Amino acid sequence: AQKVTQAQTEISVVEKEDVTLDCVYETRDTTYYLFWYKQPPSGELVFLIRRNSFDEQNEISGRYSWNFQKSTSSFNFTITASQVVDSAVYFCALSVANTGNQFYFGTGTSLTVIP
Amino acid sequence: DAMVIQNPRYQVTQFGKPVTLSCSQTLNHNVMYWYQQKSSQAPKLLFHYYDKDFNNEADTPDNFQSRRPNTSFCFLDIRSPGLGDAAMYLCATSPRNPGNQPQHFGDGTRLSIL
Fold first, then answer.
1. Is there a smaller number of Cβ atoms within 10 Å at the N or the C end of chain B?
2. Mean pLDDT of the region B68-79
3. Which chain A residue has the Cα nearest residue B89?
4. For residues B97-106, average pLDDT
């Protein structure tokens, strides 16, 4: 069975602080894909990143960075120098090759950046 | 510029009165999904179409139906909405090989039940 755990329900930081959002996943499949989405108050889910199970390289995109570690089944997301516009709910998701279309979402982490 | 378009953004209906939510896409993706998202919860997949093939999740209530008349459009019909059906409904699309592709979401329709 597949499962995604985001243990942090809510996080508050002061603007310009760094913040890390945790994501732990479970799967027995060797081929799988991990995603992060941002959901601002307006409601739409915005795709941030995809990582496949064969690529453990960390990735940086501007103030965003992702740390994928298969040894701990984690795919953590760090925002450096946080800004008020980063306030949103962030979802980590997992899909596996042999379940076709199914996305397994975590329960989300609500991030509030205080000016 | 919008690629997955949901109408309306807000929908209010009465208890038991049928309601239809619509979704259209300009991405020409083969797969379209409907999710239900309640407050402070993760999106929950209701069903999806792979081309014309309909795939219902096992725990999706019979009250929820869907239609996909063509590649671009997909509808969610709620036959007799109950108070528990008040939620955000999200439409998403993905290409033919969806497992490794991100899903592209619309802005959602927030449904209220009076």
1. N
2. 96
3. A43
4. 79
Which letter, b or e, does each residue of A67-81 get, where b requires 16 or more Cβ atoms within 10 Å of its Cβ? bbeeeebbbbbbbee
Cross-chain CB nearest to A47 (options B42, B104, B107): B104
Q: Which residues, 6+ apart, have CB-to-CB distance to B94 below 8 Å?
A: A101, B29, B30, B31, B33, B101, B102, B103, B104
Distance CA B70, CA A26 (A): 36
Place of tokens 């329960």: A107
Q: Chain A: give the shortest CA distance to residue B59, in Å.
A: 14
Residue of B nearest to A40 (CA): B107
DSSP string, B73-98: EEEEEESS--GGG-EEEEEEEE-SSG
CB contact residues (below 8 A), chain B span 57-86, against chain A: none
Query: What is the DSSP-derived secondary structure letter of residue A81?
Result: S
Task: List the one residue out of B48, B57, B3, B54 whose CA is nearest residue B25.
Answer: B3
- Determine the average pLDDT of the residues in B81-98: 89
**pLDDT of res. A56:** 83
CB A30 within 8 A of CB A14: no
Chain B hits for A51, Cβ within 8 Å: none
